[in-house]
Design brief:
alpha+beta, four-stranded antiparallel β-sheet
Length: 1568
Amino acid sequence: MSNPNNNANAAAQEEDDAEMPSGAALNDAALDNVVFAAAYQSDESSVDALDQAIQAEEEAEAQNVGNSLEAGAEVEVEAEADAEPEPDGEGEGEGAAAAEDDSVADDAGNANADDDPAADRRSATKKELTQIIDKWEQEQTQNGYDPVPTLRSLAEIFEREKDSYMRKDPDPLDLRHPYRTDPSCQYGLLLKLLFRKDQFMGKLLNDYLRDNYFSRQNISRSSLELNIIACRLILVVMPGLETTAVFQTAEEDGIINRLYNWAEDSIEPLQSYATGLLAAAMEVSDIAITCREQNMRLVPKMINRLHLLLACSRMSKNTTITEPSSSLNNSADSSFSPGMLSWMACGAASAPQSPQHNGASGSASNMSILFENSRDAFPLSRYYKRMYIPLHPPTADTSQMLILRFLTSLGEYQEFLAMAFGNNVMALIFGHLEELDRRDTCLAYEVLKYLASLLCHKKFALEFISRGGLELLLNVPRPSLATTGVSIAIYYLAYCEDAMERICSMPRPLISNLVRYALWILGRCHDSSKCHATMFFSLSFQFKAILDEFDSQDGLRKLYNVISVLKILDPSHNDSDNGSDINEDVECASRQMVRHVCIAMKRYMEAHFFYKYNNFLCQHYATSSSSSTHYFSQQPTVAAKLTFDQLHEQLRTLQEHTSVRGHWEPVDQLMKLGGITLLLRIIAFSYDWVNSGRSETVRSALDVLSVCCVIPRVYLVLCERLQMPDKTTTSGFCSVLGAAAGEITADAEVLKSALAVLCHCVCSPIIRKDSGSSSLMKFANSSRKNKANQKYAEELIEKVWESVCSNNGIVVLLSLMQTKGPITDADCIRGMACRALAGLARSDRVRQIVGKLPLFASGQLQALMRDPILQEKRAEHVIFQKYALELLERISGKTKPLNNPLDPSLTNMHKANVIAQTRIQYNEQQLYQLIFEHLESKGLSQTAQMLQREVGLPLQTTTTRSFHQSPFDYKGLAGLSSISRSRLRSRMQDVHAAIMSSGDQNRSLSEDMSPHCSSSIGTSSSMAGAASTTMGVPNFSYLSAQTPIKLRKTERATSSVTRSLQKQISLANVESTAVGLPDELTISPALHPKRVTLNSIVTEYLTNQHSLCNNPVTTCPQFDLYEPHKCPDPRPSRLVSSNYNLTSRHFRTQAGFNTARFDRRHVHTHFAPWRTMRSADYDDLEFTCCDVVGNYLIVGTHQGESKVFNMNDGVEQFSSICHTYGVDAIQANRAGGLVLTTSLWRLRTTILWSITDNEFRSKLRLPEVGYCEFSQTTQDRLLGTHTDCAVLYDINTGSKVSTFTPTIPNQYTKNRATLCRTDELLLSDGVLWDVRSGKEIHKFDKFNQCISGVFHPNCLEIIANTEVWDLRTFHLLQTVPVLDQRNCTFSPMHVIYGASLGADRDHDMETTTYDTSFNVLDAYDYSSIATIDVKRNINDLSVSANGSLIAVVEDHSGYDSKQETYVKIYAVGVKKSERSEEEDDEELPESNEEGSETGSDTGSDNVFAIGPNFLGFPLRSHRNRNFIDLDSSSDDDNDSDMDDGDDDDDDDLEIISNVDEIDFEGDASSDE
């Protein structure tokens, strides 16, 4: 069916096919460009356009030579395209694109020249529409009203505006409302105005489509004309209709059946209009299924009608050609001219206004009407380009367009495929696509859409390819409207894999033209065409023929340019003035484009990797018997497919055999274009995207990065900083970790793809294997270069580890290791996270940190290793166990006991290594005695006597020995249970594993070998080798003879191999499996097990005894063969029993021991309420926070008021309104003259107040400061917290001293910047700063989301939630689980109060769990002293200057009671009496003027005078909160601070008062 000259014609019309276009071709191209620009003008200006085109042709001839020179220069630039990536629009076809841009600019200039007339015309059109609708509303209720003129006027208005809209060449596949597509479009605006008239639209859709409209109003008139004009109007306003709602209602009213009747048998143009309405209705699948029978009857008729219209169109076209040309063959004219003339003559007088429909004559009349209108519809000028097919006047093209739309909506249904074959639709399609005129391809576009709907059927696609359909598609002229249809067709062809295999087997020039056509669409078509072309490539990259041709035409650059110019990926577009031009629709379309390009890039890289790995196998295993070695190299038409697991398994293998400085062309080109950075930017920007394809976009981008990780140079790009839209910067690993943590989307596939990238980066091998002649290795393997490469690899992987850790990679991986959802992928996610953490644990810093975390130190990992999340996923769980054991080995630094995977705790590993290091010694005389007795029992008396004489054994006497149960004698006694036997086995397996790797490395393998056992050794070796063949290539270097402890029984048959040996071999095979290599390519070396001796048997027997000890030691005395061995248990500490015993501590003090630490612990186990301030005593008042200052208590309220109370009598001194909303934090300086108040509601504000004359006076206002504190030394500065940065203010001047903004923020939700005791160090958002220089010192790893951390008063440690960090080494010292999500308040008495405060809780969350208790911890070792439950929610906690009193803001709220708050002051060290909570809440007796109470607060006789000198701690005038006197000595019993002049109190509280004399240095020796 194809024309043999089509290929030559196609080559002539493609600008980028010819190396040097001729002068005539350039003239035609320049002329056509002007013609297409003139096509956008109105019909009235066609004459002017013709004159301009002729003038442009003359100018083009004059510039022919210049254009030729420019074309030659363009070829040179194209040849140098590899030096620098060009933006979209450069390279091929650049001249055509520039000409089109010039034409658009000319149109814009013309529009600007007559802005005012255009605006006047638009307003006049809008006014005309409004007047018509208003007139209709007034007259439509009158009897005998004729709506035809109104509908005709409206149809003419909308057709005129639609013509203007279509001349702008909108995307034909854009189904949005025209107003959303182009807000400046008058057509869309008029549609919005019309659809606001609900009454008119209801009449139009329901009444005016009835064939008895006039008869129902008792008017004797046919409704046919009304139906025609109503259908015409509905079709022209169809882009603004919601077809689903309209046609479902129409189906209920019977309008659908009426449309079927009209489409099947009616006059024109009603028949065509009804077909167009049915086409829109069939887009609704429910209606198409319901009307299946009508469609089965109508579809064949419509196809036959298309055949007839096509034949008539050809005849009319030939007639038009032959009339002016007398030189043509007259015999050809005589064959069809009389019939054509007679067919056109019948019914020539009929018109749509006076329809006469009767049988065949009516059909002929219909055709004559259509072709009569077609004569003048298309100008004869060659300078006219038709942009669309108008609905009025109806032409043959109009009828064919509407029929094709109807068939397109039903083409994807299987039941209509037989009709397509039976009615020869293929010939119909070929007839429309042959010899297309590039000026008029509107009908060809509809045909191509119908073709695309049929190509989704495999049978039709194969038939289309076999009949030369691909050549026909490639001959479609471009640029044209039909090019958009070609993009859909080739996409559906690529969807059929069998069709693509046939295409790939075609001649190479045809494949080259196909790829060239698709690449042209990528750069010069509508967005919908670009999407279809991109999807075509994503489906066809798996075929090597397409892939090679894509690379040869620089396809990757053109694919990259599709998204590189999008504004949504430009971080600076928000700052430009044109940022507002990106509306929601454009942004959504851009995101879809990014999605398709990312998928295409993923398929591209995976296809290249597939063939690269196949090439790798061919090079390294060329002598292998594998039949598939060269299969894919010889079969380029076979699709390359890999599963997720296969891909990443092969990636690991290729990483091991790739040089650290290796190159790979696809990755190199992508890096050169900036593709890696662009993909990372897509992942980072996708946080704010809300669209359905976001998960697929991110997953595809991550998969591309995963494949690129084969080349180590990609790691450096991942470590670089990226600019974000909010002017911040982030690293590539930060985006990848965010995707792994589920911050972008919770899709499990995204999580796995992100973890795959992390695994390939952090687990990258440092020492690469020699790849021999592999093309991946670009450097020689000399020793000097090997050393340089290894050093470079170490530096590179260290940089990767540092980048991952600085972006909180440890906490992300730890959380993923404990995930439980989604349940179907949880086991796989755990395994990948554990592998990544195991690779990260190769870093010394990571090992130190991770080893202190509860997941490993508390045995939580062992609990995770026991059972999988889903029983069906045991294979994934085995992988998790494998990497968890590897992680434990690296953390402990010892050989992993791998034989018992259910209990591989760090404690057991340490114990096994202690046992392995123990030197086993025993009395040889005892062994000889046992041999002697054995020989005697077997009747070998002479041999026994000879042994007795040679070794000097004493004469045998009758003795009674206390034999014990042997660990291997399971039949001797019944007392040893099966549980203890299994326990013994598991322990010995661990010991064997440890012994095998910790023995002497200098002993030779043949030390204990003898010739007589070589055969048995060979048997055992062959058996072990066979067992390991299917598993991989294990490394048995550790099986060299190391110690005489290993038991190897090789003198029997193969079944006599011990259980421990079998497990060692199998487990070693599991770990050393050759990753990613075929099983037949692995090699298993022979095993050389050590010979069994009597010494090894006895040694292992004694080692078994040693392993049963609860606390084994390395240095043991000589073992006794007759008595059971047991290591001594450690002695219990004598200090434990005397912890809370007053008598023991007193006598230890007399003996010279320092018991201050235990005194302090005893004191802080008792808290008794001393004073209570109730909010109920005040009108509508709620306490929120407090601070103790000397004898006074400053309290903040929810109403924004600050109150000052006297703690002695509980009387309010004065108050002041500080904030409009509630006071969330309040803090005073040590002198009490300055107060900081903070309000977090709405606008965060902190205000500094000075207190003079019992009045709060504002001194400094700090907006946007959520937390603020005074400096520690002179307190002349303020440290404010702005989200993730800290600002230092000068109190006197109010100016900013310095700002501390971290480079990589941790983004704690409750960040609080704080200063150390000496004001030299600053901690903000987990980053440590030097205050003087303003430089970052260290960034601590983040293990929680909220609390950023505080300095310990000793200035040596930082407490960040549960983690305690060493400031000297930045090591993690320990974790304190009690402090989880609790604020730390330090007391001068060397204790820590941990409480979850109300101000730190999320009040917006309904599920907030309020904590009613606070914890008391020892400030030295963070051991828990007590947990005090106050039975109410704690809003705030403050400690007095000497630590003897604490003030707690308690909140009592419930559904059945009114909310009431309290400020309760507790006395430290006073026992609370036993009474009910109701009595505790009663108001306490007031104090007298001397400060002592008139009654007992606790309900019992209290000998302590509760007042300002309570417990012998006088209230100091200068507060020293959060500071500890490091210069005081624990031995100084005459501390001036303790001298309050009350001898009685000193005598009564002699023990308790010594608590304040404790210091950090002195207490270090008290534990001895």
